[in-house]
Write a structure and sequence with these properties.
Blueprint: H1 2-28, H2 30-56, H3 62-87, H4 95-119
């Protein structure tokens, strides 16, 4: 289930990189290209870290998994804030292209994650458990 989510997210971001760079170049020239590339990088950090954290903690306790997922969420939010703060006053990229591509990447990967989890086979009973 999580491998599928990771694979689908990487495919989405690869397609988004190609289309975002193309549209960014048409709309804003080289600043549009840079805006699309920054956005895809941020979307990869934002979307990929959760799936990787889930894959790394599959065999861990629910408490450990929750702690790792929350820690990676906090780390990725800090990374996004720091990157956006660093490029805020720079003019080498298109803010509109960055915002559009980033929104598409994050929303698209959230939809893919939902689809993977919703389609996953998760047992709702314990195999071999006795009833009371």
């Amino acid at each position: 289930m999580f491998r599928r989510a990771l694979r689908d997210t990487l495919v989405l971001l690869a397609v988004l990189a190609v289309l975002g760079v193309g549209v960014g170049a048409l709309v804003a020239g080289m600043p549009g290209v840079w805006g699309a590339l920054i956005a895809v990088g941020l979307a990869l950090v934002f979307s990929g870290t959760t799936v990787v954290a889930m894959l790394r903690t599959l065999d861990a306790s629910p408490n450990t998994m929750a702690a790792v997922v929350m820690g990676t969420w906090l780390a990725k939010v800090l990374v996004v804030i720091v990157v956006l703060a660093l490029v805020r006053d720079m003019d080498f990229y298109s803010r509109g292209v960055l915002a559009g591509v980033l929104a598409l990447g994050v929303i698209g990967s959230a939809v893919l994650d939902f689809r993977a989890v919703n389609g996953g086979r998760v047992p709702y009973v314990e195999p071999g458990a006795t009833t009371r």
